[in-house]
Write a structure and sequence with these properties.
This protein has 116 residues and is an alpha+beta fold. It is built from 2 helices and 3 strands. The structure holds zinc ion.
Amino acid sequence: MPADDWIAAIVRRAKRQLAMTETIGWPEGVLARALNLVGAPVDLHGHRFITTWTSAGPPHAADRPCEVNGFNWRCLGCGSYGRQGDTYNDPGYRDRRDAQADAQAHAERCRFLAAQ
Ligand SMILES: [Zn+2]
């Protein structure tokens, strides 16, 4: 195994162990946490938001906007947060699996680490 791969494997294992042992310090309401490429948390949390779509989602417009319980994620490295869909943006996700998958995808691309 090349030295760079070996070091990367050690860093990944250390990040996993750190994430598992630091759940006590998580902000209230955080349901799950991913770490971006430099170790900044990407937190999944519950989120109540107003949607203009029916429960079927875009492109099924509701008769009027309604408030729903859902989920969202926020990256504490770069400040980004989730928006469901590229075209029909809702300020949250109705399905936890969708929110978690997008949070994970962001964590796998993001290299930002904000100053404390
Ligand atoms: Zn980020």
